[in-house]
Amino acid sequence: MLVIGEALVDVLQKPDGSVSAHTGGSPLNVAVGLARCGGRVTFATRLGDDDAARMVLDALQREGVEVFTPPMSGSTTVARGSVGSDGRAEYLFESLTWDLGPADDELVELAAGALVVHSGSFAASLDPGRFAVLNSMRKARGRALVTFDPNVRADTAGTREVEVERIEEVVALADVVRASDEDLEWLYPQSSAFETASRWLSMGPSLVVVTSGGSDAVAMTAEHVVVRAARSVDVVDTVGAGDAVMAAVISALVDAGCGGVGAAERVSALSEAQVSRLLDVALAAGALAVESEGANIPSRERILDVVGPVADGREGVLL
Q1: I need a surface site. Which of 47, 52, 129, 141 has the fewest CB within 10 A?
Q2: Where is 43: in which H helix or E strand?
Q3: What DSSP line would sit under 118-141, residue for residue?
Q4: What phi and psi values does residue 90 have, to the nearest 5 degrees?
C-alpha cells in the first residue's frame, strides 16, 4: 500500500494548559492505521533535516512503515494547536510546504505497482506537490484501489472556488472518498452532505463515506445508501479520528478483495450488508481514536473487539 502526503509534528496545548507533542499529518496517520491493521505500507512524504523529522522517522520505523522521501533539507512542518473543551483541535502551521521535487517520477512508478494508493489533506491541494499526487493517482487508476480524504484546512486553503476545483480534480480520480461534514460544509455551504456525496459519486468514485463527529454517518454507492448513528463515547480529543476511519475503510475493503486491478468494480459490487458492515467498522475505528489523547489510530484487533467477527465466521477480517 502506498500513502502519499505530509508528515508533521503536532504540538498541542490542552484545556488544562499542559502541552504534548505527537507525530501527525492526516496521510501519516492513515499510513500508521494501515500498518496496525496488518498492511505493508510505504509512506511517501517530505521531511526537513531536523529533530522533528527524526521524531517522525523513529515513529514510522516503530510501526513498520517504510518511508520514501527525497533528501531531507529545511524544516519539517510543525502544527501548533490547542484542544478545546469539546475535544476539537485548532492549528497554526509552521514551515508548511509540500514538494517531493525530483522524486516525483519515482513516486509515480511506485504507484503503478501498489495494491492501494491513498492521499489527501495538504498533499492534494498545495502547489507544487499536488501534481505528484495527481500523476500517481492517474497511474494507479484501474491498477489499484485509489482513495482520497480531502481533510480540508480552511485556515490554509486558498479561495473556496480554487479549493473546490482542486479537490474535485482528485475526487474524479478516486475509487473511494471519505470526508467529514465539516469538510463539505466549508466546500459547499449551500448543499447538504447527502447532496454533495451524491454529486461526488457521479464524478467517478465507487464509494463515498461522510462522517459527522457524534452524528449520523453515511456510506453511499451507486446501488446502496447506508446511514449509521455514531457510537457514543467519552471524547478526549478528536485528533486523528477521521484518519482512523479512513484507514479502517481501506483495510476492510482490502480484506474484501477490493485492492489491485479492478478495485473500483469490486467496490461498486458490494452488497448492502457489506456496505453496512464497512460503515460499522469505520465508526468503531473513529470512536476508539477519540477516547485517548493524540492521533491514537486503532489496530485491527481493537476494531474487531468492538464490531465482532464477520457474519460468515471468517476470523480476523474486517469485511
Answers
A1: 141
A2: strand 42-44
A3: EEEGGGGTSTTTHHHHHHHHHHHB
A4: -120, 140
* Residue 280 structural domain: 2-307
Is the separation of the CB atoms in 302 and 288 below 8 Å?
A: yes
Measured over the CA atoms of residue 268, residue 184, residue 88 and residue 233, the dihedral's sign is negative
As a whole number of angstroms, the distance between CA 134 and CA 305 comes to 37
Position 284 pLDDT exceeds 70: yes
Identify whether 33 is part of a domain.
yes
Among 45, 57, 37, 36, which Cα is nearest to 3's? 45
Q: How many domains is the chain built from?
A: 1
Give how far the C-alpha of residue 224 lies from the chain's centroid of Cα atoms, to the nearest Å: 22
Number of residues assigned to the chain? 319
- Collect all residues with Cβ–Cβ distance below 8 Å to 77 and sequence separation of at least 6: 6, 7, 8, 9, 25, 48, 52, 93, 94, 95, 96, 97
Q: Report pTM.
A: 0.94
User: Which residue type, as a one-letter code, is found at position 261?
Assistant: V
Which residues on adjacent β-strands are paired with residue 245?
A: none
Taking the C-alpha atoms of residue 95 and residue 76, their distance in angstroms, rounded to an integer, is 7
* Highest mean pLDDT pick, 6-10, 14-18, 155-159, 246-250: 246-250
Greatest alpha-carbon span in the chain? 52
Whether 313 is in a domain gets the answer no
Q: Which three three-digit cell numbers place residue 256?
A: 474484501
Q: Which amino acid is at 24?
A: G
Provide the grid cell at 62. 516503530
The residue-averaged pLDDT of 70-98 equals 79
CA 11 to chain centre: 20
Euclidean distance between CA atoms 209 and 227, whole angstroms: 10
Say if residues 144 and 260 touch (Cβ distance below 8 Å): yes
Amino acid identity, residue 295?
A
In a domain, 62, yes or no: yes
Asked if residue 145 is part of any domain, the answer here is yes
- Amino acid at position 199, single letter: R
Closest CA to 168 of 140, 208, 225, 223: 208
Give the CATH number, domain containing residue 30.
3.40.1190.20
